[in-house]
Design brief:
The complex is a heterodimer. By secondary structure, chain A is mainly α. Chain A has 23 helices and no strands. Chain A is elongated and about 190 Å long. Classes of the chains: A mainly alpha, B alpha+beta.
Chain lengths: ~625, ~190
């Protein structure tokens, strides 16, 4: 139980270390421009919404759908670089590389172009193309966001070191560390580069400074431990055991570097001819988990120290115990390898480390239930294993994804059938109703009215715009005029004629005055009628169009659904076959590591047996000497 | 025992190398050497390449399936999408959103802290995707959460909009009003 806890802790620490490395080298998914983002197309924001939750698969596919529909005109390049970054995070180096190269060729704006060069450089570095990566990194101008700017410096320094140009790397990193905000990683790498380029004094001083600085979090504490460990072992190598002790005692007892530090601390004491002091760290270390080579070494270093102290009995006993423990451990390793071959490792890991999506930030956090799960701590902490297992897990996700679609596609088919039926049933009714409304007649009437208004305007026909009351008045006046025409030419009739003329004059005046307003109203009404008729015609045309197009659309769906179904069906066995292959690859990686552990055990066991033989020889020699002395004194 | 010491020293030297190369590995994956890669490595790359191909194919297939799904279920002529976005959002801590279209509740969405964080960082959530016929419609949204001074806060916002034959995108925006020291809720109709 205790060993499981220790391992969980080690895994957590490994995860922190992995997170640290992500910060530097592998935070592959291209972070879009620094927030706050001014999102000009909501669908681009939708992609970001998934992206910021690390739901890369949803982010990627939703961006691709929006690209298909052309819904992100303002963020075309950003969406593409984000897509490239996410593809890269899924290990799709080729396609991501093509995306970045295309963006560069396209002549995108400098900020996007610099990011594209940066990610291209990174891909090339990861694939081992150092010269091409250097060429790409040199194309970057000065438009990277600050976080990537430092990463670019570290990447270039790594590339220079990979080409053996340690002095160049040191110079570059020296420039980077001159600024107050330079990261500890830049300083750490500078220290390493300086030592490698032969300037051990400056390199050591830099690492020493880093090894003494306060560290606010686990990531930095871990880095500090590594600086001290590197310094400690460099001092041991340079025969400076006193200095080595100073460096190594700064390493935390529970960190990832603790075991190596304890071992080195013991060796420093041994070199100082103080085996008693060496026993303290070695005894502690020998109690720890045996999957670490430092622990195995401690198990034979302890009896070595006892022998140095002259405690040969204890030494012999410890060696014998170590040999026994190594034999047991070797057997346990065989059992672990058998369990791995039986598929228990991947099953157990998947069971204990679930996750929704394919994901870059997903990490193995829980060990599987296996007979000797402690062997796997070292295996699981390895980058190569994590990557291989991630690929395996991705394939499992793809398999579920394809299965889900295979089930859904049937539903699409049903839906399409229902649509077809509803359309076939309803459209004729709708069309019939449209026919009943007499749209053509209405259009004719509308046109006639429009022509009439045009005529009224051209002829300034004020009478045509008279209202009902005025029309009645006009009729009465006409009647009165006709009546008066037949009346005798007496003074009363003359007076009545005058009145009629005056009233007619007043009415004409009124009509002439009201004409402009009425004409405007009439024209406005004609405009409304025209618009509404146009809308009604548009709908009618759309209905007619739908009647022609929809069956074609349904046919197109009916063709697409089986085509997609075929693609799903073709992919399912491909994914299944690759899953099997990848499972074997994952298992092989784990077994290879356990095999290495086993070989190490064999070496240590041989060393122990050799030491036991020496001790026995020594005891026999002593006994012989005593016996000889006894014989000599006998009379 | 002299041999032992030499061996120990040898191990120590190995560890120095390990310490440095481990440190190195943390900076970035050590570059592989393609020219000198052993055959096993080449086989593995073959597998890796095939996995890349299959992943790319499945991703493209997903795109095509999602396009089909959208065209089938939410044709452009009737499509309406409602988005939620947050500008700064310091004055309002979002818990949930309710959206009504023409007096009918179309979604009630409860946010996780991760989702709220994604909104803060500039993500825009598509909270609803549906269909509406052409003509005038009304959208009403209620936002529930914590306002200034950790007080329970519920606010509504509404707008009338015209649905034509193109898809309609409506964004519910949560903003901070520095002048009023209050959150503001607005509706933006994209097209």
């Amino acid at each position: 139980m205790r060993s499981r806890d220790v391992l969980r802790k080690a895994l957590r620490q490994a995860a922190v270390a992995a997170a640290a490395s992500l910060l530097l080298g592998a935070a592959v998914a291209a972070e879009p421009a620094a927030p706050p983002h001014v999102v000009q197309d909501p669908h681009y924001g939708d992609g970001l919404f998934h992206f910021f939750q690390d739901h890369y698969f949803s982010a990627l596919t939703s961006l691709m759908v929006s690209q298909h529909f052309g819904r992100m005109p303002h963020h075309e390049d950003e969406a593409e670089i984000l897509r490239g970054g996410m593809l890269l995070s899924y290990g799709l180096h080729r396609e991501a590389g093509e995306i970045f190269a295309k963006l560069i060729d396209k002549g995108v704006k400098p900020a996007v172009r610099d990011r594209a060069w940066f990610y291209l450089a990174k891909i090339r570095y990861q694939r081992g193309y150092v010269d091409d990566a250097l060429a790409a990194v040199d194309r970057i101008e000065n438009h990277l966001p600050p976080a990537l700017e430092e990463e670019r410096g570290l990447l270039k320094a790594n590339l220079l070191m990979a080409k053996g140009d340690n002095a160049g790397a040191a110079q570059l990193l020296g420039g980077m560390t001159a600024s107050a905000g330079a990261s500890r990683y830049a300083r750490f790498n500078l220290g390493v580069a300086l030592i490698r380029s032969g300037d051990a004094a400056r390199g050591s001083a830099l690492l020493d400074e880093l090894g003494k600085s306060p560290a606010p979090n686990e990531e930095y504490r871990s880095l500090r431990d590594r600086a001290n460990l590197a310094l400690g072992f460099a001092a041991l190598q340079g025969h400076q055991p006193e200095n080595a002790r100073g460096y190594l005692e700064r390493v935390r007892l529970n960190g990832m570097s603790a075991n190596k530090a304890l071992l080195g601390f013991g060796w420093a004491a041994a070199e100082l001819k103080n085996p008693k002091q060496a026993l303290v760290p070695w005894l502690e270390l020998s109690q720890r988990d045996a999957s670490d080579s430092a622990v195995l070494e401690a198990r034979i270093a302890v009896p070595y120290a006892y022998a140095e102290l002259g405690a040969y009995g204890q030494s012999l006993q410890r060696y014998t115990e170590a040999i026994e423990a190594f034999t047991q451990e070797s057997k346990a390793l065989d059992e672990s390898m058998a369990a791995i071959r039986a598929g228990k490792l991947v099953e157990g890991l998947l069971e204990r480390n679930p996750g929704d999506e394919m994901g870059w930030f997903w990490n193995i956090r829980e060990l599987p239930e296996m007979p000797h799960a402690s062997h796997l701590g070292t295996v699981l902490a390895q980058h190569e294993f994590q990557e291989a297992f991630k690929n395996y897990r991705d394939l499992q996700f793809l398999s579920r994804n394809l299965q889900g679609w295979a089930d859904n596609l049937g539903v699409f088919n049903d839906m399409l059938d229902n649509r077809r039926k509803a359309f076939a049933d309803r459209l004729p009714q709708v069309r019939a109703k449209a026919g009943e409304s007499g749209l053509a007649g209405l259009q004719q009437r509308g046109d006639a009215l429009a022509s009439e208004v045009e005529r009224v305007e051209a002829e300034q026909d004020t009478l045509a715009l008279a209202d009902a009351k005025q029309r009645e008045q006009l009729a009465r006046l006409a009647l009165a005029r006709a009546t008066l025409a037949q009346a005798a030419d007496d003074p009363d009739a003359q007076a009545a004629r005058d009145r009629v003329r005056r009233v007619e004059g007043a009415l004409t005046w009124q009509l002439a005055q009201q004409y402009p307003d009425r004409l405007w109203d009439a024209k406005k009404s004609i405009k409304t009628i025209t618009t509404e008729l146009a809308e009604a015609n548009r709908r009618d045309t759309a209905l007619a169009q739908a009647q022609r197009d929809e069956p074609a659309r349904f046919e197109q769906f009916a063709t697409r659904i089986p085509e997609l179904d075929q693609r799903i069906k073709a992919l399912i066995p491909r994914v299944a076959a690759l899953t099997g292959e990848q499972q074997r690859a994952v298992q092989d990686l784990a077994i290879a590591e356990l095999q290495r552990q086993k070989e190490r055990l064999a070496v240590y066991a041989n060393q122990a047996r050799f030491a036991v033989a020496q001790l026995v020889d020594r005891a026999n020699a002593k006994m012989d000497t005593k016996t000889d002395a006894g014989h000599a004194t006998q009379p | 025992m002299g041999m032992f010491k030499r061996w120990g020293r040898f191990a120590a030297a190995l560890l120095v190398a390990a310490a440095i190369s481990n440190a190195w590995a943390a900076d970035a994956a050590a570059p592989a050497a393609p020219a000198s890669a052993p055959t096993a490595e080449a086989d593995k790359k073959g597998l890796d390449d095939r996995i890349q191909d299959v992943k790319a194919d499945v991703i493209r297939l997903n795109r095509d399936l999602l396009v089909l799904e959208e065209e089938l279920l939410f044709p452009a002529s009737t499509q309406v999408a409602v988005f939620v976005s947050m500008d700064v959002g310091k004055m309002f801590s979002l818990d949930s959103v309710q959206v009504k279209l023409d007096d009918k509740i179309v979604t009630n969405y409860l946010y996780t802290p991760l989702e709220v964080d994604a909104l803060h960082r500039g993500g825009v959530q598509r909270v609803y995707l549906g269909n509406l016929r052409t003509g005038e419609h009304e959208i009403v949204a209620f936002f529930t959460g914590k306002g200034p001074h950790e007080r329970d806060y519920k606010r509504g916002t509404t707008i009338k909009f015209e649905k034509g034959s193109d898809p309609k995108y409506i964004e519910l925006q949560i903003k901070d009003s520095q002048a009023k020291l209050q959150p503001e809720f607005e509706v933006k109709v994209w097209q």
